[in-house]
Amino acid sequence: MIKAILFDFDDTLVKSIEVGIKVIKDFAKKTYNLNLETKIIKKFWHLPFNNFIEKIFKNIEPTEKIIEKYTPLWEKVPIQAFDGVLPTLEKLSKKYLLGIVTSHTRRYLYKDMKMAGIPKEIFFIIQTEEDTRFHKPNPKVFDDILLKLKKIKIDKKEILYVGDNLSDYYAAQKAGINFYALADITTPKNKFIKKGVKTINNFQELLQILKCNEQE
Questions:
Q1: Is the pLDDT confidence value at 214 over 80?
Q2: pTM of the full predicted structure?
Q3: Is residue 216 pLDDT above 70, yes or no?
Q4: Cα–Cα dist 51/58, whole Å
Q5: What is the per-residue pLDDT for 78?
Q6: pLDDT tens digit sequence for 69-110
Q7: Overall average pLDDT of the 170-185 stretch
Q8: Torsions phi, psi of 14, nearest 5?
Q9: What long-range pairs does 195-203 form, CB within 8 A, spacing at least 24?
Q10: pLDDT digits (tens, 9 = 90+) for 127-156
Q11: Which helix or strand (DSSP H or E) is residue 162 part of?
Q12: Alpha-carbon distances of 200 from 122, 163, 178, 189, rounded to whole Å
């Protein structure tokens, strides 16, 4: 039986990639007269933020300088939760321990959570880019959380991770925890199906699956 549910953040709980692509392309053009291709942004989107910036801008300027210029712009960007996320989290928090495992920086994450109306208080742990030297698809990204859960008698088989990318799946699979993919956001459903990955189309579906599993 599932006792703890962990979530990726970008494009799992909130809509990030569509607005993110537009903002980063506008920023690149206005700041560096650089025309970034959408496929390049998508290719590196799942990386930790600092690595993402480094990959797409290459050596145009030191990464920290780019981030310094980009931050004021992103902090104004409106971020919305996916339909059903807020009531789903509220219902799940009454039965399960909830957590976030993301490659987002803590500063951006907290800003985006506030803007999307997602309360930090319902999560027992929030792990960001700065909290670990391991990142998805490396399964060690879950090591600290697995240790914390083990101390309160929750085994890895009683943990579910929900994400939107194959890197989320690979990390969870190798760590030995359950996984569901939110399909057709950053990764087409058929790609998950080919790997034998269980998918959901929305958060109402996740609630129904968990309810059915409890009844078995």
A1: no
A2: 0.91
A3: no
A4: 10
A5: 86
A6: 998 888 888 899 999 999 999 999 999 999 999 998 898 899
A7: 97
A8: -130, 155
A9: 195/166, 195/169, 197/169, 200/162, 202/82, 202/83, 202/84, 203/82, 203/83, 203/84, 203/85, 203/88
A10: 999 999 999 999 999 999 999 999 999 999
A11: strand 159-163
A12: 22, 10, 13, 9
Lookup result for tokens 């692509």: 21
Please tell me the distance from the alpha carbon of residue 106 to that of residue 120, in angstroms, as a whole number. 12
Residue 194, pLDDT score:
96
- Characterize the bridge pairing of strands 159-163 and 178-182: parallel
Q: Which residue has the tokens 């004021």?
A: 72
Residue the block writes with tokens 């929750």: 154
200 HSE (CA, 13 A, CB side): 21
HEC string of 66-133?
A: HHHHHHHHHCCCCCEECCCHHHHHHHHCCCCEEEEECCCCHHHHHHHHHHHCCCHHHCCEEECHHHCC
d(CA 199, CA 187): 11
Question: Which pLDDT value is given to residue 28?
Answer: 96
User: What phi and psi values does residue 133 have, to the nearest 5 degrees?
Assistant: -90, 0
